[in-house]
Amino acid sequence: MLTAAAFSRLELRQRLHLLLVLGACLALSVGLVAFRVFLTQQIYFVFLLWNLLLALIPFGLSTMLGLAAGPVRARVLVPVGAVWLLFFPNAPYLLTDLFHLEPRSGVPYWYDLILLLTCAWTGLLLAYASLLDMQTLVQRRLGTAISWGFVVVALLLSSFGIYLGRFLRLNSWHVVTNPLTFFYDILTRVLHPAAHPRTWGVTLLFGVFLVLGYSTVRLLGRLRPAPAEA
């Protein structure tokens, strides 16, 4: 049986390993973009660095909550959780940057493929790591079943956010800078779903994909290598 202190040390060690892996993915993403700029003297894919920065925001918020000493009070968890949910779609949104893949002069096609896949994978890892932190907080307060309900809802809302960002070019900060347009576009699609089939096609299919991906990652995390034969 692990003591509270031993569990805390184990949790911190796992967190450190996660940060090292995420740091390596981020470093590779930045390096690939920087080398492409150096090679082509063009800044076309530099926008990926901004997208990665936005993807770090929900991870930073969930890490802060996850490492907080003692139980997180509702008066802190609710507003921080709301901000987290607002920025959370920015992490899996990086998957849709694969839309930018096409042959371009000055760099091999396969290089851009690896660059985009690396950034997309990094965004997805940041999303799942952040979601795991938030699910853990919900599970401690409300139980396992509700925590998985939270996961499904968060990923479906995230998929809707991905649609808003990719097809309507809305961003998280438009809630503050342009709230009327932001909420009008959302309300229109909620009240008239039949008139917006692409909205709900993207939301549902992307949501199913993200839920299955997260469930797979959680399952893989529980697997252990078979003991070596004597």
From TrEMBL:
InterPro entries referenced in this protein's UniProt entry, alphabetically: DUF1361
Segments traversing the membrane: 16-38, 44-69, 76-95, 107-130, 142-164, 199-217
Record keywords: Membrane, Transmembrane, Transmembrane helix
Pfam families per UniProt: DUF1361
Protein name (Swiss-Prot/TrEMBL): DUF1361 domain-containing protein
